[in-house]
Amino acid sequence: MTMGAKVRVSFASRPGDEAIENEDFVAAKEGTVVVLDGVTPMDRTDTGCQHGVAWFARTVGTQLLQSSHMSTRPLADCLADAIVRTRDDHAGTCNIDHPDSPAATVAAVRIRDGVLDFLVLADSAVVLDGAELEVVTDHRAGDVSRWLRRRGERPTGPAVRSYRNRPRGYWVAAHQPDAAYEAIVGSAPVDGLRRVVLATDGATRLVDTFKLLKWEEALDDLTSCGLEAFLDRTRDVERDDAARGRRHGAKVHDDATIVLLSDL
Ligand SMILES: [Zn+2]
Question: Which residues form the PPM-type phosphatase domain (predicted)?
Fold first, then answer.
């Protein structure tokens, strides 16, 4: 496969709360796909940014698609550029040093010259279905919660956030370009791949949170039943779980985005 060659890309995305704009963002051009998940702020009225989380995810995502498509530069370099351009877009009007300034997780893939490059920053996922199934995701934010608990500290939102974009903490796309080089990156020959999935953590709950499916089964569901049906099932399971009072995580529903690359 050559750069820009044909590949089938399908996606589904929906907000966790119909009253709030979907803060996930997805964009694709031929074999380049970017998925971002805007981090929910503690207080939407106090982020130092007049643009909001959806704008931030959309701006970084658009810049990343532009800088990576038809380029051979490493995806981490492209993401660092996208972070800098976005920062410069609002540094003059907003307080980008606010501790809860907008941030986003990033998952990206790019097909070029028979190779698929991938990048994952924070807890979105890239799943490569080849000779073996490879799930690429970065759980360092969850690790911070776990070791705070082990030290006898409560992993409150502000406590975990104080380790954002710090060594030994966790990394997301905010305004520091260095975060791009904390992403998990890699490449795989396209010939060995059948399907590739990108997903925000709101769309991986059937696998990660509820453990109802293994990724192999999730991929077969996505292929046979479609992406909308997969998100419908996620919402049904979340509603059942909430009704039983066993809520997993802080939100009943989260913004959910899933992308399937097939016919590779
Ligand atoms: Zn702003």
Answer: 32-208
